[in-house]
Amino acid sequence: MMAVMSMSSEANILQRETVPLMASGTACMSATEQCATASVRRTIAKSHDPRVRALGLLHHRSRDAGRHRRIIHNRLELKNPSPTMARSLFVLCVGTALCSRVIAHPPPEPRATPTPTTPVRRDLTDIPASVTSLLGSAIPSDAAGGILPAWLTMPSDDQIKEQLGLNDTSISQLPVEVMNIPGYANWTANGWNNRIHGYVYKNPPATADQLDAAAQVFVPSLDESGFTDANRAMARNVTAALITLPVQNYSLQFNLRYNGQPAANITFPLPTDDRGEYDQFVPFTSPGLVPNGNETNVVQGLELFTPAIQSGNASSYLVPPQGITLVADIDDILRVTRIYQPADGLRNSFALPYVPWMNMPDVLKSWEQRVQGLHFHYLTTTPIKVTQFYESFIYANYPLGSFDIRPLNLTTVDQIFQVRKVNLHRIFETFPQRKFVLLADTSNGDIMKQYPAMVTQFPGQVQCILLRNTSATDSGNHFPYDTSGFKDIDNSTYMFFRTPDDIAGLDFSNGDCRNASVPQNVTFEYQGLPSVLGNAAVFTRPNNLIFAPLLIPFLVALFA
């Protein structure tokens, strides 16, 4: 499969000296084995910077012809790179990126294939040229080229049916399953208003071989020969969830129970949509049993049952009008994902058991004990189909709480970035008198824009923004982050931290948001550049620059 990088939108950000290289890179695409090396040699030969001429290029090629990757190693420790050096590094990386776009692939094996889509461009015009010239290949080639890989899109229902040999008759005989996402309820003058959302679906029968074949679409870089039986079982389970079939136009009934006692029966006001999803606030009252929201400051749990469908059992959380809500991202802040390292991100999401990040469970549990009435809300852009794995992980390691996820209809990068904002605005608008603590990490570009924006969009509601600086603690993260959004915000209301211990002692009920012992280095510009520049928001000792692979991990979009 060929994917040729379009260069039209990059013209505004590339330095003048890159143009000859781009032309030569395009011309040599028919000789993929020698193209990158030839381009780099020409770049080094033309450079007037002796440090660039001294650079060594190391190509790591997978034995699988379909999975070539190039990793450029900088053999120099540069204390103060000159602008010429920065531009030359960028030229070197662009040449390699351009030529690595065309890779020979072996004949495809029969498998569930993704829905064909028109490539969606993601431009870097928001990033100043001075930054992109310094980044070099710290930006993966697909990110720089603005092409969304076709295999990011999940297979369509028709493709699933075809690959599994299903017809309408066989599907109609499958039992209906319901996945209720743990929701929240707010108190109104008319009683509780409970947000009920989830997914109605059917599990198509699939053999282990069929699931293994389908898994290759979602985990193309994994070496299955290195899997244990447990790894294979998990990969099949995740894949089985991804190939479920939505049930459209399905009417739902729910039974609510409080402390084991019947509280209310609810008929959901709308049938499921064409993706099998449902999401509405539904009012209910239960006088004498469920406490009124204006009479308590404690978050109450409510059990939610779907009659005759055991999989539809879940919880809702009755949240008082006032108090503190912790909105926590999950990937790379509560669990080890490493979405910025493609191979690791895929293994950690599809094949390996979910593991908490350091001692974060202890930190959140200590906050639960310290802050009365603290409401935990877990916000992730993980697709709704795999939410059950995230729920199981969170409830096994962290305090109970409500969830927000990514609906099925959001499949492009722009929509993925927008869904977090939509979910944030919904919960802020639902609880206008509550204070919010936002917990996440710097590897998500949307977070770096949207979280500080919430301060001005919802004055007085954001009490604290806590961001793990992944580039300061993980040498594998080469993605920059933009701190310019924090420029006009009170610096006592946000903190960049390195480890869970940095934030463990904070007491939100007393207004805490900063640990004075953790140095801050916020420059209100792009930070987390190659560590030799030493501009992380939390200081870290410079290391030699090791450029990231010229490949965009689909998990950056899928699990960001």
UniProtKB/TrEMBL annotation:
Pfam families: APP1_cat (PF09949)
InterPro entries membership: APP1_cat, Mg2+_PAP
GO CC, alphabetical: actin cortical patch
Name of protein: Phosphatidate phosphatase APP1 catalytic domain-containing protein
Sequence ranges assigned to domain Phosphatidate phosphatase APP1 catalytic in this UniProt record: 324-469
Annotated source species: Thanatephorus cucumeris (strain AG1-IA)
GO molecular function: phosphatidate phosphatase activity
